[in-house]
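Researcher: We're teaching a course module on how sequence relates to structure. For the next exercise, students receive a sequence and then see the predicted structure as tokens, so they can try to spot secondary structure elements on their own. Here is the exercise chain.
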Amino acid sequence: MIELPDPYVLPPDLPEPVDDGAADHLEGAALPSLSLPATSGAQIDLAAVAEGTLVVYCYPRTGRPGEPLPPGWDRIPGARGCTPQSCAFRDHFAELEALGATVLGLSAQSLADQIEFARRVELPYGVLSDPGLTLAEALQLPTFEIGGRRLYRRLTLIARRGEIVKVFYPVFPPDRNAADVVAWLSSQPG
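Model: And here is the predicted structure for the students to work with:
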């Protein structure tokens, strides 16, 4: 019998991603006017939402309990940890909201996958589906390929008044990212 990984738990020996410079150009860039379907059923225009403070964390893909990971997934630096990262943003949501931030998750998974995931882990914020990687194309975000699919590399953008003011890249460990975002927002003037 094959033992399936628990998507809620990070293995202790995950390879740490290195900063390859693929996000160096993002701070100061304008968030594009780009509408994507959300788990709420709405189309969300990132530029419109970014008129305040917007936190968008991009991740490769979430797993489902009882389903195998793609072959070699745990050996790809930064691939594993989407569920713990999302749950950490859920757990820090009240703090982020108190800091005036709107939080959105984003991956290349289908909207149906995103809806299932958001319901299963009870996310209080929207998750966007971008299977065409339109945001990656617009901002030249880092991606990788596995099994013939192109996915987002994990990174978190903070935008204020439509401009990206902070980028967390690479993000490791992923379950600490939300706390790092709270700490950074807490240290910044509104």
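Model: If you want an answer key for the exercise: The chain has a mean pLDDT of 94. The two ends are 54 Å apart (CA to CA).
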